[in-house]
Structure formats: structure tokens, C-alpha cells
Specification:
Layout (H helix, E strand, L loop, with lengths): L10 H12 L5 H8 L3 H14 L18 E9 L4 H12 L4 E6 L6 E7 L1 H11 L7 E8 L13
């Protein structure tokens, strides 16, 4: 058993997860062919991986640039208080902002790392002034623009 109480994944399950991570729209027949199983056992394994929680959902990865948000900014946020109410309100407010792609409560000098999609410095200023800074409890922020994405995975495949 692993730390989550699940039986360890065998090499075939690991190959299935890697293939689905690479192409979540692959047909069961093609997936089975790629990993060397017949369609029935492959489907049963995928279903078992879904039921066990290894596969939580399938999603489309959208092109930010084509949608008019070509720039990514990582914002480090420090809150003025760290009680459950402040953290909860801040987290819920972030979740409501469509520009926020990811947000992490962290350890270290900053309380949150927030990844946002924006359109240039003007879009960034609008996001800061009209959205982020309207959330109560922010003490300090520091931001950096991403120049280029070097690697993007939505999860780690074994």
C-alpha cells in the first residue's frame, strides 16, 4: 500500500496514465493498442483508475494567446493576517477571478503564489487595481512576468 492507502500501480497502469496525460482524448481502442492490451481489459483498468481517484477529470488545455491573454504573471502575495477566516475569504475571492489560472497557499516569505493570465502591462495593471487589490487582507505583493513556458504538465505521471 502507498501513503494514500492504495495498492501501488503496476507498469501497465503507469503507462495508461502517461498516455492519458499526453492525450486525454485517445480512444480506448488506440490506448489499448499503445500499451499492448485488448480493448476490454484496457477499459476496465481505466475505469478502475478513475474509480480509485488516480484520474480525477479530463480537460481541454486552452491557448491563452488565442483567447487574448498572451501573458502569464506569477504574483507572490503576503496577507496581513493568517487566521482561517482571512485565508478562506482570500482563497474564495481568488477562485472567483477568471484570470487566475492557479493559486497555491505556500510556506516561506509569501503566503500565496498566484498564476494569472493577462493581456500585457495594461491588462496586468487592470487586474491588480480593479480585482486583486480589492480583496481585503493583502499586505504585500511581488510579481514577475513569465517570458516563456518551458514545461507544462497538469500532474505527475508515474
Amino acid at each position: 500500500m502507498n501513503s494514500s492507502g492504495q495498492k501501488p500501480l503496476d507498469p501497465t497502469d503507469q503507462r495508461i496514465l502517461r498516455e492519458l496525460q499526453s492525450d486525454g482524448r485517445v480512444t480506448n481502442a488506440e490506448l489499448a493498442n499503445r500499451i499492448g492490451l485488448s480493448a476490454g481489459p484496457c477499459w476496465q483498468r481505466v475505469k478502475r483508475l478513475e474509480d480509485a481517484g488516480y484520474i480525477t477529470h479530463y480537460a481541454a488545455i486552452l491557448d491563452q494567446k488565442m483567447l487574448g491573454f498572451p501573458d502569464t504573471v506569477i504574483i507572490e502575495v503576503t496577507l496581513d493576517r493568517h487566521d482561517d477566516e482571512t485565508l478562506g475569504k482570500f482563497g474564495r475571492a481568488l477562485a472567483d477571478l477568471p484570470e487566475v489560472l492557479e493559486a497555491y497557499l505556500t510556506t516561506g516569505d509569501y503566503d500565496y503564489f498566484v498564476k494569472v493570465a493577462i493581456a500585457g502591462t495594461e491588462g496586468y495593471e487592470h487586474f491588480l487595481r480593479d480585482k486583486l487589490y480589492k480583496i481585503a487582507g493583502i499586505k504585500h505583493t511581488r510579481s514577475c512576468f513569465a517570458l516563456r513556458c518551458l514545461k507544462r504538465n497538469l500532474s505527475v505521471a508515474p
